[in-house]
Structures
1.
Amino acid sequence: MPGVLVVDSDVVLRNTVRDILQAHGFEALDAASAEEAITVCQSPVAGQIDVVIIEESLKCKYVAEQVAACSANIKILLTSQTPQHALYADERIPAGAAFLQKPFFPEQLIAAVKSLIQPRIQ
């Protein structure tokens, strides 16, 4: 079962995303901060994580670098209310990260996660 780490400071959104992922067959962990996410990615459960979903405002570039240091196989899905083009212009999107505009529907979330791990779930 693919694993996803949800990183968002908004507890309601974090729990909702985690619940949606679990309802679609994903193993979902969550973290409330960049520091907590890095701790999870450096722990023994890191081998179970395929995707990290992180809110853009939570030091996303730093988290992406730390996650890559733990495992180059973990994919990053950045979420933000800020339009993608503005984030690229400000160089706030980590290299290689996918993007999902907030607000999003559950179907969009699942499609975005599956697109990142498709080779692993076939």
Note: The helical segments are 11-23, 34-41, 60-70, 84-89, 106-121.
2.
Amino acid sequence: MRRFKHALGVWACALLVLPLGNSARASILVAKTTNPANGHDYYLLNQSTWTAAESEAVSMGGHLATVRNAQENTFIYNTFAPHVPPPTGTLHHWLAIGLKEFDDQSGWFWRSGEPFVYSNWDPTQPDNNAGFNENLGGIALPPLPPGLWHDVREDRPTVDLGWGVVEVIPEPTTATAALVALSLTALARSRRRTGDSPAPL
């Protein structure tokens, strides 16, 4: 009996130290939702810090969402806002996107590396509220003006709570890649033929 208990204890300890195969996806709150307008896949994570959410997004093959236009902003808000619980007291809830301020506060950039060409700031934002160095961007949820962006800070859990929106851009399928290659080959041949033809008189 003692040997059995000892073996059971060793087995239990081994389970505790084994890596969990699905740990990278353990914090997903809403599963893959594809935006038909751009073909990108989006997920909603459970509440966490912005840094933890971005790390999770990278492990999933993407980043926190880049918002390129009004359609994408509306899609993200309408798809995921209903899944975030309403705030209580003085809390503000927001959808964390991949927007971050440069360290020298000279502007904003997307973690995906795409150019920052579209914004949807609330007219009062970004405001670095009360000098708190709010260097992250989020899509506001009620009671703040819904769908507009606010600058936020991740280390104020008594004020700001974020739910990360992950964006993963699917790799092109083999068929799509082959079609693109054929199109480029045909275009190159067409240009060579045009270049070889005699100039009109």
Note: The domain at 28-171 is CATH 3.10.100.10 (Mannose-Binding Protein A; Chain A).
3.
Amino acid sequence: MKIILQKFLILPLLLCLMPLFGQNYGKGADLDPVRYEQTDAKPVLHTRNYTALPSSVSLKKYSPIPESQGQYGTCVAWSTAFAARTISESFAINRTDRTVTSNSVFSPFFVYKSASNDPTFSRGMVISDALDFMKDPGIVKRLPVEKNTDFKNINISIFHTSPRYPIAGYVRLFSNPRSSPGTIEERVLPVKKSLSEGKPVIIGMNCPDSFQEAKDFWRPTENPRTNYSGHAMCAVGYDDNKYGGAFEITNTEALLKFKTVGEQTGVTKVISGYGTAILQLLYTRPTKL
């Protein structure tokens, strides 16, 4: 299995939908298969391009310390701005102090408020809508007041002097033709390759109930064809030697690993059934508003 994304001018993202665990936290990813297929795709590589992938990769040292989105449906903004975009910057400048990184994250409030126009912060959004906004007009860094203030009590005007950091573009890593799940190689290898290149992956996942009970790792037992709540997160690593092969994700409450196993024991459902999309994001230098 494999997954990849990111560098100084490139930030890849993977999409999946799944519920937060532990408590009934908010989710908020609108998985639209039509919109996903309309997204520009990363060129398909030959199998030989994946033969030299390392057995494990982790971008966790470049990531901010996970925070909670509470009951709001803002997971798309957290996974794209707070997680993936911040990790991409950390990787580009080799920033590995997670406390420092956590004090220099990109604003999930600004992305959600600007791209969704939802005053309740409950409706959720399509991941590509957030990325389109991050491309033009661009994203901003989080201000200190945002960290300790309820989103409904923040006025977006506080960012009027903040510099913008527009991305150059984004791509999906694989396709979902006719809603077909595709093969393990078609889905897992591109994601591992992106992660091995220092590129975080935004995942939009169809989240079954078992995810809420997950601890160190998650292996779903539900039917992947059933529609559950959509949830966006960010993949930050993989390890072929743990749990039979696993990806590590950063969630808006904690870091969680979900298990991927052999074809005979259901990896197709874990990777192809629940995982639904993968995007890659490009970014440029900051510009003024």
Note: The radius of gyration is 17 Å.
4.
Amino acid sequence: MRNFLILRAVMTNHSRLFFLLTLFILGSPVRADTVSVWGEYHPPLNGNPDDAYPGFMIEIAQSVFEKHGHSIDYILGPRARAVHKVRAGEVDCVVNAKIQDHHFLAFPEQPWGYHAATLFSLPASTFRYDGIATMTEVNLGAISGMRYDNGVMDEYLGQAGHRVTFSYGAEAMDKQVKMLLAKRVDTLVSCPLLMRGQMKSMKLDSSAVKVVGEVKPFVGMYLACGKGRARTENYIKQINETIPKMRASGELQAILDRYGQIDWFTIYRSLNQPQ
């Protein structure tokens, strides 16, 4: 009887220990990080942090990282400064990064959108872009200070004089579309992603404008993070794991729909070179 009581006491102590260990393991939270994400104001990719529509890249990042127990700290500021801070390890990630310009960062497998310097006109326009020399046929609208192609279009904008009407400030894209609709300019230079977002925000049908030429082919735009650091490299891994699940569940398209955007995957599959 004494041996039985000793055995029972040992088993009881082991059971209690096992129970306590189980509670500790199940109750221990997954490590939660605050992921710092820096972006230059560039709607619909990323806008003001406090807006109901902070940008589709910001909403995607929030959803991705929340699924891994993290939150994000979205900071608005100049992109050049953001890239410097990410390289220095002071900020985790930056939105609207490009492989060609920021190859020293860590990139996920897929971009979150594409930029292409594209010309838009009203449906009745007969203009068709056929090289930069044809731009003398139209009065062009553009946003001051924006780089469109790092090439012939940017050079043209710098020397075209009265043939280009620039818009300024946070509402520059809105002003550009209104000028086109009012026929104060013949053509706008923008990109399909930005134009879709602007048309959505203005509650205009996409048929209100048409593409009349492409100056520069598609270039991928990414959320990129610091390279060579375990913490930020893990964020890239989490992005690669989570985006396909969000696409399959419909969550990704639901976010894009809020900004009038299409899933980038069709473009991604059609391109034969890294973007």
Note: The chain has two domains: 34-113+220-270, 117-214.
